[in-house]
Structures are given as C-alpha cells and as structure tokens.
Amino acid sequence: MRTTGVPTLSTIPGLDSAPTTHRTLLAWVHEVADLTAPQRVVWCDGSDDEWRRLTTDLVNVGTLVRLRQQPNSFAAASDPSDVARVEDCTYLCSKDEPDAGPTNNWMDPVDMKIIMTELYRGSMRGRTMYVVPFCMGPLTAAHPKLGVEITDSAYVAVSMRLMTRMGAMALEKFGDDAEFVKALHSVGAPLKPGQADVPWPCSDVKYISHFPEERAIWSYGSGYGGNSLLGKKSYSLRIGSVVARDEGWLAEHMLILKLTSPAGAVHYAAAAFPSACGKTNLAMLQPTLPGWKAETLGDDIAWLRFGPDGRLYAVNPEFGFFGVAPGTGYRTNPVAMRMIEQGNAIFTNVAVTDTGDVWWEGLTEQAPQHLTDWQGRDWHPDFAEPAAHPSSRFCTPIQQCPTLAPEWDDPAGVPISAILFGGRRATTMPLVVESRDWQHGVFLGATLSSETTGATDGEVGVVRRDPMAMRLFIGYHVGDYFAHWLALGAGADPAKLPRIFGVNWFRRGADGRFLWPGFRDNSRVLAWITGRIDGTADAVDTPLGAVPAAGDLDLTGLDADPGDVAEALAVHPGEWPAELDLIRDWFTTIGDKLPRELHDEFDALVRRLG
Ligand code: GDP
Ligand code: PGA
Ligand code: MN
Ligand code: MN
C-alpha cells in the first residue's frame, strides 16, 4: 500500500496509544490508517465500558435502537440492500486459479489488491477506525488462533465482542511476535467534513476477498454479519479450511452437540447443514424423548482434530451465536428464547414492537397488531411482507446458553462419535440414513444438496449441491477438499472414526406439508443414531444406506401421522434417476480433481439402485 492522502499517520488521534508492542501488528495498523485516513483510531479492549460507549454512540447515530423489554439489548436495521452474505462478491484469491476450484469466485491476488487498495484509499474518512484483536477457540489452547480485525464499523466492533474472544483477553496472547490473521474491513462510506452519517453505512460496490497463502482477509462495502464479522466464515472456515488442510485437520460448518442417554451414556455429535437448515435449533435441542439430555457446544462452526487417542475431537472457535430469528419461539427453540431474554443481545433486521421489544415471524403464534418492520415501516398483520427479514438474526454470548455443556471451553475439544450431513430436500432424501463406512460417508457429504435459503443473496428454493454444507466456505479446490477428508479417514483407525449419517428434516408431502415434525422430535433420530453406534438399534438396508423402519425409531408420544413418518423414511428408487443426473453434473463440474473413490461410490450407488 502506498501513502498519498492526508491526514498523515502522526496526526491521527489514538493511533499511537497502542496497548501492544507487537511489531507486525503495529506496522499493519499504521499502514491501514495511512491508507484509509480515519478521523481517529480506537484500540478495542472488550470492556463493559467500551460496550456502553459504542452502543450509546450507535443509538445516537440511529444504527441501534435500545430495547426497553430486554436488558442491555439492541435492534439494528441494515440498509435493505445489505441483508445477507454476498456470494457473487466473495472471492478466493489464491495465487493460482485452479486452487480456487469451481466453487469459488477467483481473482488474481495482485489484481484484487490493486482494486481494493484504491477502494480503501480514504474509505474511513470522517470515521473511527477500530482495531479489534480476537481469538478463535479457547484462549488456553497451546497455540491460540489469533486475528485482528480493523474495521470502521462500531456495529462490527460490538458484534465481534459477542462472537469472539475479543479485546484485552486476546491481545494478551499476542506477545511481540505471535502469528495472527489480518482481517481488514471497511463499510466503504467515507464522510466529507460536516456530512451527516446514515444509520447503516455501506457501499454498492462490495468485495469479500480471501488471500489463502497470506492468511489475510479484505472485506469492503458491506456491514452485514456474514460479510463483516470476519472471525466467522472468513477466518474460521475459508482461511481455516486452508490451514486445516496444511496441518491435517478439518474446519467445518458444523454444530457440536452432547447427548446423554437415559442410561447415562455420553455421545458427542457434529452436524453440517447449510445456512438456515437447522443447525442452531439442533444445537439447542430439548429432547421430547423422556430421560434424554442434550447440551450445546457450538451452533455453526467446528474445528476437528485427531487427539492422541486416535479419536476425532471438536472445538467451537466461536464465542457467541448469530442465529436465524424467524421460526425461533418457545414452541420450537425454548433454549434460544431463554438465552435471548437474559439480554446483552444485538438483533439485526427483526421487527420492533410498540413497547420496545423484538418480534419476528414464528416468535408467537399471533403477530402484534402493530409493529415497526425491519425497514422501519408501519406494519399490521395484513401487511403483504413479513415484518422481520427471513435471514434476520439474534446475536448473543455463548455463556448465556442455558444448555451450554460444561466442557465448552476445553481446548482439547470433545470426541465426536457421529457426523451428520443434512439439507433441505422436499423429496429423495430420507429422514435419516447411515453410511456404510467413512468413504461412503464422505460421498454422502460430497453430494449433499439443499434448497437455497435467504441466508445468502440470490434465488431461494433452488436445489443445489452444497458439499459438507461448505460450498461457500471451502478455501481451496473442492476436489482437493474431498481428498483431504478421504485421506484423514484412511489414516485413522476405522473403529475410532465417527460414523457418518445423512439427515433431512424437510421432506414434504404432496400438499407441501412437512412429513416430519422436526425440532425437538429430532431427538428421536439422534437416539436411533446413538443406538446404531452402540449396536442396539435396527435398520433396513437400502440402496442409500441403513435406514430405520418406523418401528426402529422411538415414537412414543409423537404427534404425527404414521403414514407421514413412513413416507419421511421411504427410499423411492423411482425418484433417483433425476437425482443421479444432478450428482453426475456436479461431479463433472469438479473435474479431474474429484477423487477416484467418489467415482467408485457413485458407481456403487447406481448399481444398488438397479
Ligand atoms: P441454521 O442457520 O442452520 O443454524 O438454522 P436454524 O436452526 O437457525 O434454522 C433455520 C430455519 O429452519 C428456522 O426458521 C427454523 O425454524 C427452521 N428449522 C430448524 N429446524 C427445523 C426442523 O427440524 N424442521 C423444520 N420444519 N424446520 C426447522
Ligand atoms: P447459519 O450461520 O445461517 O449457518 O446459522 C450464519 C451464516 O451462515 O451466515
Ligand atoms: Mn453458518
Ligand atoms: Mn445458525
């Protein structure tokens, strides 16, 4: 980066009050300040005082509305053009194009840096530049995974405090020379002298760029969580998956759940579902099956490493939840409700009630008679559009989760005995299927598909392949990623590997209704899964794998039509020729790098289906 603009670095207040002697960090902060020309620099310490100051500022500028019904909680409404992760503007800038593979937009890193350096030049004028040190995963890890986000958004700074181990506690781990990921973010809306700010500054031009070889992230133009809270998708998955490949572990889009059976047997499961397909709900499951207990470790991201005993251990790198609001209510997810009601939450793009509380579709059966909708409009129940954006979010600290497992912060992680891959499919995929072995399980993950949701921009409801629910997050070639999964399995003791299952809570009847009640009743599926691991549950062998007969699931007290349950479990070979064509197309898209083993699995599936 070259320096041209004023003010020069020596005149920017706050720049030299750095609470660190880390040389690379200091040099980088100076370089960015020099390029982006902020009015002042603030080093975030993550204190309560700082939170109060920033949230008060955000209320004053109109970004946040203070809620009257919940302590220390706020609602934010984004610009209507900045409501989701922007897939088309997200880039993987590996040095060589083939390394990005067919699932990433690619641009040469040098070209991208030329474009973005010009965008960043002066982009923080009139704004405060926040320096946010953070750590992904436990601070007590042998090698804590550190990062620093530089941002000109106070909303990002306060959200980072909820989502990561942030501020002084992270900076302590930096010393003078610890490695860290550089994450640069600007909303791309500089202010001229005297120009009034808007509640949600952002830019029409957006780039969310990743430089995997450098382990760096440059984000510009969007304030929306998935594009701007760079510890989450950008660090923990896109950069994380590259580090994981190089170091022999896995960075995955998975929740982590602890299950205790009535007999006291403990199993840990990890589950990968695409965004808005049920991770947060499953992570906070309250089983309907008597005597079962479920506890939460993570709801979105898991880092999986083999332990000294040869088992696969999972750590949640995050420190908070960024959950889909619509559909969350006492009936579906009472745990999330109890977590939210403790306060200390930031909501984005939900509706606000006349008494200063939040509301979204599914929170209560009856909508209030009047709301201010997510776009600030007067809303009544007969209004044509939903009051909350379909991907509106709650953001809360993990420690408020009433079902948090005591071992959630253990740097060793928890040993995983089951991995679940699931998506939203109205047809073809049964409620649950057990893979035959690790390789077949990797095939299930590699061919995972789902109807698209509102969590990213683009059309909703279109079936597409979402391998391991990582389509948008794999930081290298998807074929190499599958090979990495296969190699990790091949190098492990098969008896110690997690068993892999496919699930689908979203199969529909001819009239469009869900065939399976889902939510808390998914505990019945989890009970069957642990039964398979322990050798106590029966199944029917189908071309797709082992599927329970209705009688193999514990359906005691289930409020569902037995015909629907049977249909949710059914494998219809007649539905499969079309599906096989889609898988064939997907494999063709991947090309030469698709591992031989997955071709073999495909051929075997075709044979079994007849
Ligand atoms: P995440 O984005 O993967 O964490 O998904 P969430 O758990 O936030 O759920 C996304 C949406 O799917 C919400 O509207 C939920 O109400 C809905 N959902 C979650 N689990 C189920 C389920 O088991 N059945 C049905 N029908 N919907 C579900
Ligand atoms: P989720 O996470 O929708 O998978 O919960 C946030 C995101 O993917 O943007
Ligand atoms: Mn996610
Ligand atoms: Mn979620």
Q: Could you walk me through the main structural features you see in this protein, from its secondary elements to its overall organization?
A:
The protein has 610 residues and is an alpha+beta fold. The protein is 26% helix and 21% strand. The protein has 15 helices and 30 strands. The strands form six sheets. Strands 11, 12, 13, 14, 15, 16, 24, 25 and 28 form a nine-stranded mixed β-sheet that branches. β21 (371-372) and β22 form a beta hairpin. It is globular, with a radius of gyration of 24 Å. The termini are far apart. The structure holds guanosine-5'-diphosphate (GDP), 2-phosphoglycolic acid and manganese (II) ion (2 copies). The site of guanosine-5'-diphosphate has 20 residues, from α8 and β17.
What is this structure's SSE topology?
Layout: H1 23-36, E1 40-43, H2 48-61, E2 64-66, E3 74-76, E4 90-92, H3 109-120, E5 128-136, E6 145-151, H4 154-163, E7 165-166, H5 168-171, E8 181-186, E9 207-211, E10 216-220, H6 225-228, H7 231-247, E11 250-252, E12 254-260, E13 266-272, H8 279-283, E14 293-298, E15 302-306, E16 312-315, E17 320-324, H9 334-340, E18 346-348, E19 351-353, E20 358-359, E21 371-372, E22 378-379, E23 393-397, E24 414-422, E25 432-434, H10 438-446, E26 449-451, E27 463-465, H11 478-490, E28 499-503, H12 522-534, E29 540-542, E30 545-547, H13 562-569, H14 576-590, H15 596-609
Parallel strand pairs: 1-5, 3-18, 4-9, 6-8, 8-10, 13-24, 24-28
Antiparallel strand pairs: 2-3, 5-6, 5-7, 9-10, 11-15, 12-13, 12-14, 15-16, 16-24, 17-23, 18-23, 19-20, 19-21, 21-22, 25-28, 26-27, 29-30
